[in-house]
Amino acid sequence: MLLNLSTGAEMRYEKVTSYLFAAEAEVMTYATSAEDGEGDGVFVVNLDNMSQHAVIEGLGNYERLVITEDGDQVAFLTDRDDYEADQPEFTVYHGAGPGWQGSAIANSQTEGIPEGWWVSDNGGVSFSDGGGRLTFGTAPRPEPEPEDEEEMLDSDRVTLDIWNWKDPYLQPMQLVRANQERNRTYTAVAHLDRGTVVQLATEDLPSVRFAPEGDQPYAVGTTPLPYRQLVSWDGTYNDFYVVDVATGERRVVAEMTRGAPAISPQGTYISWWDGAARHWMVAPMAGGDPVAASGDVPHPVWNELDDRPDLPGSYGIAGWTEDDEAFLFYDRYDVWRFEPATGETTNLTGGLGRDSGMRLRYARTGFRFGPGGGAGIEDGEALWQAFHYKTKQSGFYRGRTDRTAMPEQVIMADKSFQLRGKAEDAERWLIARQDFREYPDLWVTDGEFTDMVKLTDANPQQADYRWGTAEIAEWTSSDRTPLQGILVKPDGFDPTQKYPMMVYFYERSSDGLHSYRSPVPGGSSVSLSFYASRGYVVFVPDIPYEIGYPGESALDAVVPGVLSIVEQGYIDPDKIGVQGHSWGGYQIAYMITKTNLFAAAEAGAPVSNMTSAYGGIRWASGMSRMFQYERTQSRIGGTLWESTAEYLHNSPVFFADKIETPLLMLHNDEDGAVPWYQGIELFVAMRRLGKPVWMLNYNGQGHGLGREADRKDWGIRMQQFFDHYLMDAPAPIWMEEGVPAILKGKELGLGFRARRIS
Length: 758
What we know:
Layout: E1 2-3, E2 10-11, E3 16-21, E4 27-32, E5 41-46, E6 51-57, E7 62-67, E8 73-78, E9 91-96, E10 103-106, E11 117-119, E12 126-127, E13 133-140, H1 171-176, H2 178-182, E14 186-191, E15 196-199, E16 207-210, E17 218-223, E18 237-244, E19 250-258, E20 262-263, E21 269-274, E22 279-284, E23 291-292, E24 317-320, E25 327-330, E26 335-339, E27 344-347, H3 352-356, E28 358-362, E29 381-388, E30 394-400, E31 408-413, E32 416-422, E33 428-434, E34 441-446, E35 453-454, E36 468-476, E37 482-490, E38 499-504, H4 528-533, E39 537-541, H5 550-566, E40 571-581, H6 583-591, E41 600-604, H7 610-613, E42 617-618, E43 623-624, H8 626-630, H9 644-649, E44 663-666, H10 677-688, E45 693-696, H11 708-726, H12 733-736
Parallel strand pairs: 38-39, 38-40, 40-41, 41-44, 44-45
Antiparallel strand pairs: 1-2, 3-4, 4-5, 5-6, 7-8, 8-9, 9-10, 11-13, 12-13, 13-14, 14-15, 16-17, 17-18, 18-19, 20-21, 21-22, 22-23, 24-25, 25-26, 26-27, 28-29, 29-30, 30-31, 32-33, 33-34, 34-35, 36-37, 37-39, 42-43
Helix pairs in contact: 5-6
């Protein structure tokens, strides 16, 4: 039904399968389909006078309907012309106003479509920004299903996976991606003004992307095909090509490069991060050598805190200016501008960020496109989003994108601000504001942020509950590295009292000091606000890592941090718990083999044996786990045979006899990231040693808990576990006695046995 909101008039359209409105015109298009084929077709409606035009009609399927922003053209796929065939094929159709007569643009017989290929209904259809080109998907035509296949008894069928050392991807990874590969399509383009079709993407160059604006002459193609085996132990690499959209000819720009290339808005340049060179690279699409856009910056533009044994990542980019004149990127503190035509490099923020210990970033006021691709940045006045690394204050500064201009502070506060948008024709800004206690409601303000008006009150019930306050804690690690963390104190905190303390961590979290934390049962970890409301002090320490010694690194950071809080006198040293999940769970499992500081520990989905985990599979993706140890988070930095001692040293299961801390684990049988046998290995070792240990397996759940009922149950059990050891609460039945398998699904064991008082 189409309703005119001004007049109340209604129009009904029957058997509609899809419909679209033009973004900038009073035009609607829709497709219909019926079981008997009566009325099948694609139609266009002029909403000014409600006149209707049939683009095409006839028995068939009509899919992938698109319309240009100005409402002058539509396109779609249909098998109408071949509907009665045993293997009907789709044709790309196009219609244009004012006549709207549909015409065939491409099918398997069209010049430019590779022999043996056809138009695939798995591929999308889209107009270029300028409307002069139409892209669609093609693919090799599959073999028809044999009609008289001899039936075979199930008992005679052979089903197996064949693992071959030459396979580009491991068999599990191939199986995870099998449907994606079966449905893969390759981009072709129809030049509507010339009436030609060009195949751009091919089996050896499977991905092609276009400039976001206009009908630019070049596209960018990427292929990971030569480097697919490296995914198992190293990372993802690509070769980049510039592709001539008119001819399909290609020219290599970069080889074996990490990351993805971005195209400037007008399609003049391609940019990418080169981790090996540690620079942002820019190359002209029309031809010419790449240059290091960040080559003249006297400071690192790579992430200096990245302590993984891999090529470092960048600090990111703002993107290109709207005329492709300049490329804007970041170091840790400031914003830089590089002009490819002149080679000039400018510090737009004048070094204020570095001088002040503050991160300055371009604040986008429109969110149609993301950084690095899409609408360009306007030259002129700009708003910088600011964050102070030490105090964690955030806010905004005013500056410029076209030249160096010392930023002028608009607002800085002990809050976290998120810019949600700006009025198109007025200095009115939509802001989300939050801190540990303040829910991120929406506010509107003028350009000076002097009259912030609260628009929403989404969480009034919070006023009825105890909460807490968050502050920064500082200490030095065992190797004398200055560190920070978040310290949460409950409402009514009294420094003369003794409190239990919960420790939670995951790498570095202190920058989230002013993030709001909802007291909801999570899929894996403790809720900081929930535990604070119940009288716990909560400590969240940052952890830097030394390659080869991730477990020791956690120990060296966390234990001194905990002791520094204990020294302040308000923590009961016998009532300290620790909780973490995945990478945090591993570090907890390691730490309790080295210290008895904690009265209770929960390690969620922990790796307990790096020697067996190294050769495991991340079943959700089908990937080998080798890359994680050699290149990324697990930070060993070598193979099992090169770094055997490090793998053994960092594996808690080999030191299970040293554990004195009661341990609870959450590890589910469908964990697609950390195989659940890792939890089993540690559980059976501690059980064999007669040490208190529990493991919960929520059947069918993955790396975290997705079902709300399971989340609530887990939140209750974790609370019962820690309350028992840290608040002297009684132990529930599931801890004291367990729940026998014959009672599975009938008894949860959450209750308590009555005890006789003598």
